[in-house]
Amino acid sequence: DAKTTQPPSMDCAEGRAANLPCNHSTISGNEYVYWYRQIHSQGPQYIIHGLKNNETNEMASLIITEDRKSSTLILPHATLRDTAVYYCIVRVGNYGGATNKLIFGTGTLLAVQP
Amino acid sequence: EAGVAQSPRYKIIEKRQSVAFWCNPISGHATLYWYQQILGQGPKLLIQFQNNGVVDDSQLPKDRFSAERLKGVDSTLKIQPAKLEDSAVYLCASSLVGRDSRTDTQYFGPGTRLTVL
User: Fold this and answer.
1) Beta carbons of B106 and A46 less than 8 Å apart
2) Nearest CA of chain B to the CA of A30: how many Å?
């Protein structure tokens, strides 16, 4: 089962920041938080990941709370093309271990409105 | 850099028929994954390869599903015989296992949409 909880859907106005929350209260100390998104009829696309520090790249920012029990993905200026299902995933895996699979939940459907 | 390639993009078959999907990962990626995504759900891992060896196939219905990755590059996933509940999108992903696998990122292909009638 997925180790994260996300709202099923959210709306955002075009040009505004989209803030997508994720709860991962049972995260372990060596587990990373990953965000992927899936635009309709496409495969999931990697967005960003982090361990405990806030992260930013050209797509988004990731804010992780100090206790690491929740995080927020921020799309600073949402466009219509950002309409997608966003998945927050706690990474299961061990260094040099057998598996580093991603366990997806049902995600948040973000609808960017014109 | 070319992404993960999959074919066919769409397939329609009748139940009890067989079907095969093909995946070509990103060049140099040692790890390859097959996921099944049923409508309205997130992807679920079926099998993971490291080079040409199976790392995890715990969720693969082995009575009807099989997969191989000969020579550690391309992979095929086969269903024989297909059931109605196999209707789904089959996604292939690959990753470059570096020195720290905890930060390994998976890149997905566009998927194959299978409809079983």
Assistant:
1) yes
2) 8
Which residues are B45's β-sheet partners? B35
Contact A85, A98 (CB under 8 A): no
Token pair for B53: 């060896």
Gap from B29 CA to chain A (nearest CA, Å): 14
Per-residue pLDDT of B77-113, as tens digits, reads 999 999 999 999 999 999 887 556 555 788 999 999 9
- Look at residue B98 in the predicted model and tell me its pLDDT: 56
B36 token code pair? 């099944």
Give me the half-sphere count of Cα atoms (radius 13 Å) on the Cβ side of residue B66. Answer: 8
Q: Please list, in sequence order, all residues whose beta carbon lies within 8 angstroms of the beta carbon of residue A17, skipping any fewer than 6 positions away.
A: A74, A75, A76, A77, A78
What's the rounded mean pLDDT across residues B31-46?
A: 94
A43-98 per-position pLDDT tens digit: 999 999 998 889 999 999 999 999 999 999 999 999 999 999 999 998 865 555 55
- Give the mean pLDDT of chain A: 90
C-alpha distance from residue B49 to each of A89, A107, B40, B54, B116 (Å):
21, 26, 26, 4, 26
